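queue> pop job 88
queue> type: inverse folding (structure -> sequence)
queue> payload:
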């Protein structure tokens, strides 16, 4: 009687079903733990929310709105009453650049000191003396105008052959303290009427 020889399978073939089962269980465990939603009322969740709130309040306290020269208002040319706007009739050209600001928070308000550098370049019809240029500072939040003031900046320009530098600043730009970082400050020349914009305050 012939004896049957039992074949021995390699180790990796014996282990394969067991390894596959362990791997599947592991995936199941990972999937389950990944879908777990943390209770928003748990101490950990509340601590995280409180920390995020403190960060937001800190950012708002440190927020100083940026200052931008409004498009189209960086240069002002004066031809006087001449209808022929040519270089021969130019009295002067004024320009502004290098805006800057500082902020001082108060009790429910924010006061800014807005400054800008400028120069007066004399033209062919220039006469030495005092040049007055109109500069407006406006603070807007969305569609609301929080502050708007037109200034008359006097510049003593006594040299008809060289540019005269000047510095303008408005230290009293005051408006309600922002509750979000969506406030923008604009500055620029404004030859329009000297009207004061109504301040709109959002309800708290």
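queue> result:
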């Amino acid at each position: 009687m012939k004896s049957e020889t039992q074949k021995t399978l390699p180790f990796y073939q014996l282990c394969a079903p067991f390894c596959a089962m362990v791997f599947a269980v592991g995936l199941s465990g990972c999937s389950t733990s990944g879908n777990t939603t943390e209770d928003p009322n748990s101490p950990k969740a509340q601590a995280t929310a409180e920390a995020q709130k403190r960060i937001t309040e800190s950012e708002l306290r440190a927020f100083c709105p940026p200052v931008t020269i409004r498009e189209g208002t960086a240069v002002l040319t004066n031809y006087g009453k001449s209808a022929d706007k040519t270089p021969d009739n130019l009295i002067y050209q004024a320009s502004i650049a290098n805006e800057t600001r500082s902020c001082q928070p108060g009790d429910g308000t924010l006061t800014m000191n807005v400054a800008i550098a400028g120069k007066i370049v004399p033209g062919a019809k220039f006469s030495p003396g005092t040049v007055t240029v109109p500069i407006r500072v406006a603070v807007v939040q969305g569609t609301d105008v929080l502050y708007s003031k037109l200034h008359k900046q006097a510049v003593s320009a006594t040299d008809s052959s060289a540019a005269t530098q000047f510095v303008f600043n408005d230290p009293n730009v005051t408006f309600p303290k922002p509750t979000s970082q969506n406030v923008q400050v604009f500055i620029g020349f404004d030859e329009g009427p000297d009207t004061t914009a109504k301040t709109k305050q959002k309800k708290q």
